[in-house]
Amino acid sequence: MQRRDFLKLSTALGAASALPWWGRAFAAERPALPIPAVLEPDESGVIQLIAQPGQMHWRRQPTHSWGYNGNLLGPTLRARQGQAVRICVSNRLAETSTVHWHGLEVPGTADGGPQASIPPGKQWRAAFRIEQPAATCWYHPHTHGQTGHQVAMGLAGLFILDDEESLRLPLPQRWGLDDIPLVLQDKRLDGQDQLDYQLDVLSAAVGWFGDLMLTNGVEYPSHAAPRGWLRLRLLNGCNARSLTLAASDGRALYVIGSDGGLLAEPVVLSELALLPGERFEVMVDARNGKPFDLISLPVRQMGMTLAPFDAALPVLRIQPSLIEGKGRLPDTLARLSALPEWQGLPSRTLTLSMDPELDRQGMQALMSRYGHAAMAGMSMDHGSAEAGMTMGAMKGAQGDAGGMAGMDHGDMVMPAGEMQHGTMAGMQGTMAGMQGGKGSAKPLDLHSGNRINGQPFAMNDPQFAVKLGQTERWIISGEGDMMLHPFHIHGTRFRILSENGQPVAPHRAGWKDIVNVEGGRSEVLVRFDHPAPRERAYMAHCHLLEHEDTGMMVSFTVEA
Ligand SMILES: [Cu+2]
Asked: Which pLDDT tens digit goes with each residue over 132-154?
């Protein structure tokens, strides 16, 4: 062995032993991180997207999945500021779908909301010009009542925007090498290894969640990266799960961009929370050549606390190679305009709420299926003050336990890791019978169980009209319930004034299209520069997809 090779090898071994336990166990056998290809327009200048069925191999048996132009997820679309984009979406699925360009400032007619349905076998053409600056956006279905299912099946992709200034920055720009797209999603499979999706009282209340964590469609992949600065383009593509990411060795995360574009300057964090639908661009320093993991920290969100998310969970191994890195972290990134004087601006209040009966039944179902471990500190035990204070409906659940009365809570608690899907299926059957029985105080219409300003979503009934080009202050209130509501507004990028009554964190103070609403009032400054007519109104909704699908969405027009 040459001395040089020996040095390389011993360095590699030294680094390997510094890995956490999972790294030592799996370092050699992790699959490579799949990189979604950038899809170029065809010879006529049109980007061709095809929603189609596919197949994945996550467990023993093949899993039926959906993807754009492939088995799962979709290619990356990429366009520059000033560019005219034409996209043709073909639907080869057996059900109607739509495609929404999440984060793009395009007219309502091109936005791909729930009205822009594409029946099976049909096509939809969208044409628009990119006017906004560089950002990491995405695309996904927006079929009302079906969005959660269609995203769970695999339909989602990145839509990256560039501008002259962003391309001039010394940031890493080698796609899939040091400019790394990361779509993070959790999924749940049934006993036949098929996607186990239901829109039921449980998912309508807390969202659909799973126990299989995927990064670009693969469980804990590994990426051979240059030894240098790395740019991670993170998308939380989960239906309902909020993620908090960190580096396994505690190295810094330098946030350089949020949903709607680059920040003014990097913000250094040790951990970064991403709500469903949110994107952040993060730089990490891999110049020391040591491998590390991107990990998901244990979560506290209702329903999301079950294994494997109850502990640090690796989502990506970064294995620096001997290739020298290019690019670096600049001190300044983009010009971020100062907030306008907003005291006198028109304001609107959107109040998010859940039918107390849905809340009650959802909590019962969560407790019954998964036990205390899923309750995120909430408890249905008698005498729990916490439950009464935080979940209005929990009081009701305790007061008239009805169908729960005969159940021994002690028996329902089981380590999540030991749960078998077969057992769960049986329990679900039992619960379904109970929910239809004496437990219900009044009939619950699941599909209108979530509301904005007291109304469930009505497709053909825009709730208000915004004046084109007028900056408004929107107050989005989740007061009265403790659920997480990542609130998204179409057709715009906004600036957050406050989140849940707190000053906005520096890395969330740039351009955003999702704001956190969790038990408090959040305020954003919003402006629409494109029209949205009545028949193609914009949407504003909770991006916890099962809340959206069961009514927590409002439509509005933008008019000159
Ligand atoms: Cu919500």
From this structure: 999 999 999 999 999 999 999 99
